[in-house]
UniProtKB/TrEMBL annotation:
Domain of life: Bacteria
Keyword Signal attributed: yes
Signal peptide region: 1-19
Source species: Larkinella bovis
Protein name: Outer membrane protein beta-barrel domain-containing protein
């Protein structure tokens, strides 16, 4: 009896990931971004500017045959900028897009690669109104553009389990195919096949040890870049550094407390030499919501940073400082016994930036972001 059960389990494991691209399965992915910026100053005439921005994209595909998928993508964006004074300005930019595509998938186990294409169209509208308070003259301008074009796609998917996958894709409107950029994102699968239902019933959840009380985590992101340029026999160069080391401690099972130290530094050499530095600290808490290897999480972060600027041989000057907070949520995957890979998919943030001048004027920043193209971070647990 035990031998038969073991044979059935091995058989189902061998067919689990093959079921990802069978008829009856479908996938969803999407991206939602909402940002609002308001600037206000206390100059002699004063000024106020508001700039809300909204972006939305939804992708859906269904497998009609083994490894053949038919999909639909809908997108839209809206941007508005309003200057209340001293020169009233109202700008609106709207865009809508729709595309239909077909993909063919190849591969077994957790990996799939695909190629396909389709046809898509977009409609853009730009509208601007400028009012001159001295002459009461209103200037209006409106521009409408549209585009319809075929496109090709290639990419790959790594399925973490029967529901979630990591996708890497690129799209081109040029044939033969020309690479223009890669996009990474999350894919959520719906539907189920008979073999998947059997394996899910037969396999208990996997409990990882990384998120147990008493364990420490360390992680960091580092980006170094630079450029050189020669213009009219004058040489220019720039170096940039972005880093964010972090350390955390599980005070209880699935509950992490930690702190990150974000740092940015840039230096420009030329006729005018400048150096810019931003240093901050960001304590955070995070709780994981299940005991499986793939587990959702929610968290909160407080942020504070100070920005300094120096030009030529003048002393360094603190220009502004920013304080705020963020609520976030996402997915974590426990790799082996010592790593946690995380992807933030939802962020709700707010902050206040204050200028270091006599007026102490500044601006409020708020933002909501939902994305299936998150930045992936990895922590080491010991």
């Amino acid at each position: 009896m035990k031998t038969a059960t073991l044979f059935l389990l091995v058989f189902l494991l061998a067919h689990l990931t093959r079921a990802q691209t069978e008829p009856g399965r479908a996938f969803w992915s999407g991206n939602l971004q909402l940002n609002t910026t308001q600037l206000a100053g206390d100059y002699p005439n004063g000024y106020t500017r508001r700039s809300p921005q909204l972006g939305l994209a939804i992708n859906h595909g269904a497998f009609l045959q083994n490894n053949w998928m038919l999909g639909l993508s809908v997108s839209g964006s809206y941007y508005k900028q309003i200057n209340a004074n001293p020169l009233p300005l109202d700008q609106r930019y709207q865009r809508g897009g729709l595309s239909v595509f077909v993909r063919k998938y190849w591969g077994n186990n957790h990996w799939r690669i695909y190629a396909g294409g389709g046809i898509g169209g977009s409609l853009d509208q730009f509208r601007q109104e400028v009012s001159d308070p001295t002459t009461s003259l209103l200037t209006e301008n409106e521009t409408n553009t549209y585009q319809i074009a075929p496109f090709t796609q290639i990419g790959g998917v790594y399925f973490l389990n029967s529901r979630w996958g990591l996708e890497l894709t690129t799209t081109s409107t040029v044939f033969p195919f020309t690479f223009s950029g890669l996009t990474a994102g999350l894919v959520y699968m719906t539907g189920a096949t008979e073999s998947e239902r059997r394996i899910l019933d037969a396999t208990p959840p996997t409990v990882g040890s990384q998120a147990r009380a008493g364990r420490f985590t360390v992680g960091a992101s580092v980006i170094i870049s630079g450029r050189t340029e020669s213009l009219n026999n004058r040489d220019y160069s720039a170096q940039n550094l972005m880093a964010a080391p972090a350390v955390g401690f599980f005070v209880a099972n699935n509950f992490l407390v930690g702190i990150s130290v974000p740092i940015t530094w840039s230096k420009n050499d030329g006729p005018d030499k400048t150096a810019e530095t931003t240093l901050g600290f960001a304590p955070y808490v995070r709780t994981y919501l299940s005991n499986t290897r793939l587990r959702p999480f929610v968290g909160a972060t407080f942020t504070y940073s100070a920005y300094r600027f120096q030009q030529n041989d003048f002393p360094s000057e603190e220009v502004n400082h920013t304080a705020g907070g963020m609520l976030n949520g996402g997915l974590a995957y426990l790799l082996g016994k010592n790593f946690i890979a995380e992807a933030n998919v939802l962020n709700l943030s707010f902050s206040k930036q204050t200028q270091n001048n006599d007026l102490k004027n500044g601006l409020w920043l708020q933002g909501v972001q939902f994305t299936t193209s998150p930045a992936i971070s990895v922590q080491y647990v010991f």
